[in-house]
Amino acid sequence: MAEENKGVSLIILGIVAVLAIVGLVLLFSKAGSTGNAVNNYESSLSSDSSDNSVTGEFKLKAPKISLNKILGKKTTGKQVPVATPSPAPVYSSASRIVRCVNGGDIFESVQDTNKCEVSNQRYVGPLGFILKNQEAGTALLQRCMVGGREAMTSTDPNCEGQQKAGSLGYIYTSAQPNTVPLYRCYTGKDHFLSLQSNCDGAKKEGVTGHILTSRGPSDTVSMSTPQDPLKVNQLIGSVRPTLTDYDLNGLKGGVITTKFGVTRYNQYLQFPPSGGRVIDNGIDNFGNKGDFLYWQAGVPMFNWKMDFENGLTSSVIGLDLQDLKDKTFNILGKNYEIIEAFIGNSSIGGQNNFIKIELISGNDRLTLKDDDYTDNNYKQSSVVVNNYLLDDSELKVNARLAPDGKSIAVSQIEYRSRAAGITPPKGLKGDIYVQQGHSVREYLYTPEDMIGNQFWDIKFGGVTNNIVNVEVYLPQQ
To answer: What is the pTM of this model?
Structure first.
């Protein structure tokens, strides 16, 4: 009997052991499923900022949680729209709008200098930049006369029932990148515009619109406009013949001071009427067929011009222009410093009408010279970049020597590059054919012809429905 009871006990213990083992298996199986959650982490070696991942770290595949749940709102089952930033505004050109005072009347004026429309008006300060031409999402900002005397601005086409007195330009009707709200304010006697939401202590009548905070939109500008797209076989300068700092950051001007006073300088890129165009179904110098941005050899590609509003003036010591040394200014997106400048006897007429200016920017050296600064003619082979003589380019410097010969004022420097592309066999110059997705600099016989900033270029993006994509890229270094 004892042996029988012992056998039963052993059977029971065996069953308990089996159950224990099963329990342990189930327990570890559950733990294993928890461990599988760790496997839901992924090693992310991508540097793509779109998922905010960091190289070498892990990220968890997060479950999709509705915005309503996060905000504690009831879910309707409809997808919550996610706000996306508006694209940067693309605009043709802009003017500076300033605030002025005439007696007790505060009003706005479009001025590119720290001045008002007439000399007896007091300049208060800038407000921002207003578009010269209408773009999508803009309205015309009009100047209205209240009671025949007080100036008020309005985007209402009928001037809110008041007398129309001209317009200032176009202003965005809603917030855009690179814009700030512009408020219309009222003192009880006078209307004015302000960037301050408290209207500088006056009564706020509302938001008139949104004004640009800078002229230049970016480092790149299209040679088309939405209203006037560039087409195949149309000259690339036919829509935008001149680019300024309104269009490109790299064309910003500045101020230079010598003992003779202060002068502001401005610079421009111009695309002449005989310049490049996009051709379709062409054949380039290497036998490739397709659409190309094209210049015929020898035609002007572009002009770069810098003018000095009050003249860049220096004393003349011997033949040396000492006051110009160490002066710095921006040339096509890169700052250059004058290290030497002098005038000398020219082979033309034997007079002191030769001028030479040497500039440096880091390891880059730029030499500009003109054999006769008194005429208005281009001189060939007058520019040297890092010991490369640019024999496909031309230069003219306009200057005036004082009657006593003791000072000279430079009014303008103008550079013109003529097309010279690479052709086989190596060593020959020819037409320029820029393939889709490429830039002009790649196809130039002498890339240094694009003076100033080694990064600036003219890009060809291709042709869509006879409309071409040509952009000028000019960053400020």
So the answer is: 0.58
